[in-house]
Amino acid sequence: MPTVQVKTVFGDVKFQCQRCGSCCHHRRPPEFDDLIPIDRLAEFWEKSNLIYLTDKDIHNISRRSRKKPEEFVDTLFKYNGDSVRVEDGGKKVILDLPVMKSKEDTTCVFYKNGCSVYSVRPKACRLFPFRVEEETTPKGDILLNITYNPTCPGIGKGASVDKKRLEKLVVDQFLHRTESIFPKVQRLVAEGKIDRCAKIYRTLPGRKVHPAER
Fold it and tell me: Are 29 and 168 in contact (CB under 8 A)?
C-alpha cells in the first residue's frame, strides 16, 4: 500500500513576512505548454509560483469577498468544480487543478496595496515562501518535500520556522486536494474509462486557451 511522507528538507531557517507583495506576483513560465507531463513537474514548480486552491479555499474566499468562484478561480478549461478530465480514449488524464487568477501585471486579483482576503488566504499563501516538491518513489510512495524560496526578503529575519506547523499545513493541503481528485480517478479506472497505462498531465491555467475549449 503506497504511503505519503512529509518532511522539511532544510535546517534551521528564520522567517518573518515583510509584506512586500513579491509572493503575490504569479509566474507562468513561457517554456511550458498548456499541458505539463508529470516528468516535468519538478522543473515547473521550480520556475512557477501559482497559488493552488482547495475547495475549502474557494468557499471561504467566495464568502469573504462576495465574489463568484469563476471571478477569481483560474483553470485551463471552463471551471465547474471538476478537476479531472479524460481524453484520447482513456489514454490521457488531465488534472486541471484550480489556481488563483492574476491581473495583467501578474499580481493576484485580490492584491492592491496588500491582500484584501488575508484573513481567509489560501493554504498555499500561508505556506509561502515555503513550497512543496512532490516525488514518487519506484514503489509508488509519495514524498512531499518542503523547501523554500531563498530570494524571499523575509528569509533570515524573525523567529525560527516551526517545522511541525509547516508539515501540518502541507498535510491538510494534500488531503483536501486528494479528497477532490482520487475518488473520481478510482471510479473512472473501475469503470474502464482510464487506461492503466494512461499518461497524466497537469495544466497551466491563465496563459493560453486549450484548443478543445470555447
Answer: no
188: phi then psi, degrees, rounded to nearest 5? -65, -35
Q: Could you tell me which residues come within 8 angstroms of residue 7 by beta carbon, excluding any fewer than 6 positions away?
A: 143, 144, 145, 146, 167
Reported pTM: 0.83
Q: Residue 102, Cα to own-chain centre: how many angstroms? A: 14
Q: How far apart are CA 158 and CA 14, in angstroms?
A: 6
Spatial contact of 132 and 170, defined as CB atoms under 8 Å apart: yes
Per-residue pLDDT at 150: 87
Q: What is the pLDDT of residues 58-106, one digit of tens each?
A: 999 999 999 999 999 999 998 888 899 999 999 999 999 999 999 999 9
Give yes or no for a contact between 80 and 98, defined as CB atoms under 8 angstroms apart. no
Amino acid at 210: H
Continuous H helices in the chain: 41-47, 55-65, 69-72, 123-127, 163-190
Q: How many Cα atoms within 13 Å fall on the side-chain side of residue 111?
A: 19
- Please tell me the predicted confidence (pLDDT) of residue 89: 93
Reading the block at residue 203, the C-alpha cell is 495544466
CB 79 within 8 A of CB 70: yes
